[in-house]
Design a protein that fits this description.
Elements (H helix, E strand, L loop, with lengths): L2 H29 L1 H48 L12 H19 L2 E3 L10 E5 L6 H14 L3 E4 L11 H6 L2 E2 L3 H9 L3 E4 L3 H7 L13 H9 L3 E7 L1 H4 E3 L4 H10 L6 E3 L6 E4 L11 H19 L6 H6 L10
Parallel strand pairs: 1-9, 2-5, 2-6, 3-4, 3-5
Antiparallel strand pairs: 6-9, 7-8
């Protein structure tokens, strides 16, 4: 083939390529693909910005999912063991131990959960455990699991009324002996020889306390009167970094107003960070017939505050709490 023919072929090929490129550009403009690329770029940026924000609000819902999975397990367990109910006085023992093992495993894996002072919980007989309430009291769930596993006991608990209104929670609360009060029922549980857990701060402390860990007990002394009437010791309890695991937006005025006005605990909770959790049990405060309920309430509050001062750096810091996962040993102060 001559040079003239080769030149002619190359020119024809270039024209064909140019035609195809022009055709693609025309098709791109006609379909608006350029705008689509712009939209995708914007969406990618928004995804990059909002993904961390979405995660910190989604993780608390995983705890709710775990609770509902626990409830589902109880329903399955109940159906499977209906025939045994007439022959067994402790139908739920197996279910409680199974769920305790699962929750204890969750605590060990996700939070490296530790508990110090478990020997202060009696193997038999009553005691009142008074604890600081986190935004989500998952540390208390881990504590209950450890009581079942290590002590072979079920600790009764006092919870706010709204918890009994959550759909599907009735069976879970019943199996784990959760009550909403009143004082007479609490006294009776202790007189029957059970352990009982109470958080005087309750929902108010859960929603409105913050990384400085203030105790929001107000003038509540009902728990102290319960201890006096049942003649039992009080064991103070606090979990290090519980506010760094989950935090509440209750400090915003709107959510505070909603709770104070309508008693609606609707402040969003965010977090679920795998920070280090350590639960500390203080020395028992023995029954004293010569002390008033107000004096005892103040004494217990001072004991819980002492645990906070001793074991929690103020203000709490999420990054520091995460790094504490790598501390193999904790030196008691």
């Amino acid at each position: 083939m001559s040079d003239t023919e080769n030149q002619s072929c190359l020119t024809g090929a270039e024209d064909t390529v140019a035609f195809i490129v022009c055709g693609f550009h025309a098709l791109e403009e006609w379909l608006g693909l350029g705008q689509v690329e712009d939209y995708l770029s914007v969406l990618e940026y928004l995804l990059w910005v909002f993904t961390p924000l979405a995660i910190v609000f989604i993780l608390p819902f995983l705890i709710v999912i775990l609770l509902y999975l626990s409830i589902l397990f109880l329903h399955v367990y109940k159906r499977k063991n209906q025939l045994r109910e007439a022959y067994c006085n402790n139908l739920w023992d197996g279910a409680r131990k199974t769920l305790a093992t699962l929750w204890d495993g969750h605590g060990a894996i996700w939070h490296g959960y530790e508990i110090h002072g478990m020997d202060k919980i009696p193997d038999k007989g009553p005691a009142l455990i008074v604890y600081y309430h986190g935004a989500i009291p998952i540390d208390y769930y881990y504590f209950l699991a450890n009581v079942i596993i290590q002590k072979g006991r079920t600790c009764h608990s006092v919870a706010d009324h709204f918890l009994f209104k959550i759909p599907g929670f009735k069976l879970l609360l019943e199996v784990f002996s959760v009550m909403h009060g009143p004082q007479e029922d609490c006294v009776q549980a202790l007189k029957n020889g059970h352990l009982l857990g109470i958080s005087p701060g309750g929902v108010r402390e859960a929603l409105f306390s913050d990384e400085t860990y203030p105790l929001l007990w107000g003038k509540r002394k009902g728990f102290a009167q319960v201890a006096i009437d049942s003649k039992v010791a009080i064991i103070p309890m606090f979990t290090q970094n519980v506010r760094e695991g989950f935090r509440s937006m209750g400090t915003l005025r709107f959510f505070r107003w909603m709770y104070e006005t309508f008693r609606l605990p609707i402040a969003p909770v965010y977090g679920g960070f795998p920070v280090k959790f350590r639960t500390f049990l203080g020395d028992p405060i023995p029954y004293d017939p010569n002390i008033t309920s107000l004096e005892l309430a103040e004494k217990v509050q001072q004991s819980v505050q002492s645990l906070i001062d001793k074991h929690q750096q103020i203000p709490g810091n999420i990054l520091r709490a995460l790094l504490e996962r790598f501390h193999t040993k904790y030196k008691l102060k």
